[in-house]
Amino acid sequence: MAALACGACSSPSPPRKTSSPPLTLAGTEYLSPLFRAEIREFRDQYPDADSIVIRPSGSAEGMEQLVNGEVSMSLLLRELTDPEVEAAIRRDGMQAFPVAWDAVAVIVNPASPIEQISRTELAAVYRGETKEWASLGWRQGGEIITLTAGPRLGIYAYLEQALLGGDPYAPTVYAPPTEEEVVEVVATRRNALACVSRPLAEGVGSRVKTLRVSQAIGLESIPLTRETLFTRRYPLLKPISVATSAHPAATVSSFINFVSGIDGQRIIARHGYAPATVPIRIIRTAEGVE
Question: What's this model's pTM, rounded to 2 decimal places?
């Protein structure tokens, strides 16, 4: 039985290509462009390695597929849940390798006058302790419509773990199956609030407003920008990890080594995510931050 672990895979150079079927990486759809780029560069550098394909899925579904041996790797945007740990132990263990950081955006309708919120206040909203916008400074806001994506997606468990400390969501929290549906509600309901993945919030532009976030009431509120993500100052960060079995195929180990190395981390930075395994340097130019 192998214990769960985090770290860097160690492996020799990728194996020679055989007639074996392609290896499969399960992961959420919004990360597909990033990991397709990683796979392309990996294949360019190691043309004889086994091929890797992406199978879109939510975090929960991907982990189930990994535990059941249906995929070779799964992307993880949260900590493992207790049932996943137990299932992994029954199947000889699992490994998770952090490769990047992303952020969770707190969004409201553009008509809302609210500009910032603390983690403390946000947790109270999701627990159901704060139900009215008046408690957050918007006297005419009425009841807060609180949303998160459904439990099959990683952001649901991430908020439960990192924001609520394991406490359950209030029964009044709406949880549509996709983040796109969450954004649509926020864009059309002036009293709605939600947490969604950063790329999705950025992609819809002015249809929603992204709030600044502070660690606690009275502390500085931090905008979600490339700089605050890369320097990890933004208070709602989530890791992006690649999970594998305890004894992955040689190409899987080599691919994780590549993504964790300088070339793979450059690709992560180019796609707007914060590298997790190499130091970064912020350079301010006339055009912005590099």
Answer: 0.82
pLDDT at 290 over 80: no
The 10 Å Cβ neighbour count of residue 281 is: 6
Residue carrying the six token digits 């049932």: 83
pLDDT tens figures, 156-194? 989 998 999 989 999 999 999 999 999 999 999 999 999
**Number of domains within the chain:** 2
CA distance 109 to 215: 22
3-state secondary structure of 230: helix
Provide the 3-class DSSP secondary structure of residue 258: helix
Full residue range of the structural domain in which residue 96 is found: 23-100+240-289
CB neighbourhood size of 89 (10 A): 15
Q: How far is CA 24 from CA 20, 173, 179, in A?
A: 12, 34, 24
User: How does DSSP classify residue 278?
Assistant: S
For residues 110 and 88, state if they share a domain: no
Q: What CATH number should be reported for the domain holding residue 184?
A: 3.40.190.10
pLDDT in tens, 246-257: 889 999 999 999
CB atoms within 10 A of CB 141: 21
